Structure formats: structure tokens, C-alpha cells
Amino acid sequence: MTQVRIDAGPYTFTARFEEAPAPKTCARFRALMPYHERIIHARWSGESCWIPLGELDLGLGYENPTSYPAPGQILLHPGGVSETEILLPYGSTQFASKVGVLAGNHFLTIIDNLENLPALGKLVLWSGAQSISFSTVG
């Protein structure tokens, strides 16, 4: 099983791909790695951080979509009604944008250091954008 190392601000997490329920999203994101960006605090989704990707068309539709991810269930919204984005929930979340409730493809789940997610969320909320990178391990 391929795992993903996530370095976000001063924190490191390990995640697993959700291959069975979201194979196309996993394959497309894997092709982007190593992936480096900045993470900012969500505006409408509650206790979440996000990576806005604007009009980027990844050629994806919905698979394994949810609007209510648990902390550590990372989503990719494929675009359309709202911009393409990656959502990283750290607490209570209802995935949304200025157009209303959204669904995103649950394609990664954090499996290590989950207890540090609230601290990351608070750091992003109070100190602003943080660097984030995703890379494969194993």
C-alpha cells in the first residue's frame, strides 16, 4: 500500500490513498506528486483548511463524494459549480462555498499524527497560510 507523507507547516502526517472508492481521483493526484502548495483556512466549511485550485480541470467527476468529512478525510472537489480545491478538515466540517454545500471526493485519509490536526488548523487560522507538500512513501 502506498502511503503519502504530508508536511504542513511544522507538522508531518501520514495518509493512505482511498484506492477502492476513489481510484480515478487517487491516480490523478498521484500523477501530481510530489505536490507543493500553500494551505489556507476555509471560509465556509467550518474547521477545515483548503488549497484553492481555481479553474484547474483535472478531468474528474464525483467518486466517493461527501459533504461531511471527518477530521483527516481529505477531499478533492473536481470543480464545476465551484472552483477546484482540496479540503483538509481538522474538526467539525460541512464542505461548502459561496454557492452552498459542496461534495468532494474523499481520496486520502490521515492515519498517523491525527492528534496534530487541530493545532495545524489553529495555526493556519491565526497565523495565515502555511506550506504543504504531499509525497509518496513506500
Characterise the protein shown here.
- This protein is α+β, with helices and mostly antiparallel strands.
- It has 2 helices and 11 strands.
- Strands 1-2-10-6-7-4-3-11 form an 8-stranded antiparallel beta barrel. A two-stranded antiparallel ribbon has the order 8-9.
- Strand 3 (35-41) and strand 4 form a beta hairpin.
- The mean pLDDT is 95.
Gist of the model:
The chain has 138 residues and is an alpha+beta fold.
Major sheet: 8 strands, antiparallel, barrel
Shape: globular
How are the strands of the biggest sheet laid out side by side? 1-2-10-6-7-4-3-11
Radius of gyration: 13 Å
Distance between the terminal alpha carbons, to the nearest Å? 8 Å
Helix-strand pattern: EEHEEEEEEEEHE
Contiguous low-pLDDT stretches (5 residues minimum) are none
User: Number of helix segments?
Assistant: 2
Number of strands: 11
Helix % is: 10-25%
Strand content: over 45%
Class computed from helices, strands and strand pairing:
alpha+beta
Q: Provide the residue-averaged pLDDT.
A: 95
